[in-house]
Amino acid sequence: MKRSVFFASVLAITLVAGGSAFAQAGGYYYVAYFSNANTVGAPDATLRFVNDGAASTAVVQDSPNGTLSASLYVFDDSQEMQECCNCTVSADGLLSESVNNNLTSNTLTGGRAERTRGVIKIISSLNPDPTANVLRTGLRGTITHLQASSTSSANGFYYVTETPVARSNLSNVELQDLEITCGFVMYLGSGQGVCSCTPEGSDF
Known about the structure:
alpha+beta; Hypothetical Protein Tm1070, Chain: A
């Protein structure tokens, strides 16, 4: 009995404080940051998304629907888009993306500085094309962050925290800018500037 009351109390406090990783209201545009990526001695960070099933239109046995696409746009800390891509997430599915291996390993300019810290923007879409989104709510996500315990790289200790990606406002101008810039990155990069997708259900 005491254990149940304690659990309920902790749960209530967590929800009031917004602590639940996927407690944010449904949205279709999110932003997050990454730091200490591709750094010697630092662990990898992970961007995770689940599809809450809101896009499902019918219940048909062995015929799942409601698949959504996560359009991902990765910027360095100089506001330059370095990579973009689109990864699909089936209803009730889990998508886990490595910041080092999926989101920053194939930058447009190929420099190390562009791979250590920056911003990730995510659009929940029905269309698996980051240059032509069809907005639809249903993706909920978190990202892990790496905080150095000391300004000295020789220390080698990093704290890992996980927070929800921030639900954000998406204007028509911002949407068009993301899509057009991504198109340029894909075209000019000739293979560079395209991020990759971990198979759904693989986590690390």
